Fold:
Amino acid sequence: MPPTPAVAVKASRSDELRLGGVVAELRHWALLDLTGRHRERFLASQATSDVASLAVGASQPSALLDRSGRLRAFFFVHKREESLALLIPEELAESCIEALESHLIADDVVIDRREVGRMRLALGPAPAAVAAGSDRFPVEGWGSRGFVTWGDDDLPWSEIEPDDLETLRVLGGPPSWLSL
Structure:
């Protein structure tokens, strides 16, 4: 009797995410850099993050509130050796910059919006294992850990569609900002 041929089984998107990694275009997000010797103290006084205890290379979700305690913006903050990077929804970037700059008085802090072009989000255990790097912003969101990167580097994981990324966001990711 001849041997039974092997059947190739394609992994589902959820299995690819759970066991390996996936990549998606990260549209409508902006990257801000805070530099200067008072950057950590300043951001800690304006946002919900405990920036001082955040390890260099780590990131966490944060929010900017107005003086009444209402949400003005949410973002991810990444502590680097010489700066703090904020990954923020595009439509909130300018108002966040204005709100932060309005509180700069005698602080040595510079807020710059970086033009990075195309951003991609890599999620899953494989991307999480290699999240460190100068052009990588580690994140935990969308139901998984991974990183955001920019540039044209090829990433070795399967591409997912915007609808799949939106499903991940709804199931375990950052909130969607709705303009009123």
Q: What stands out?
A: The chain has a mean pLDDT of 86. The longest helix spans residues 90-101. Helices lie at 13-19, 39-46, 90-101, 125-129, 162-172.
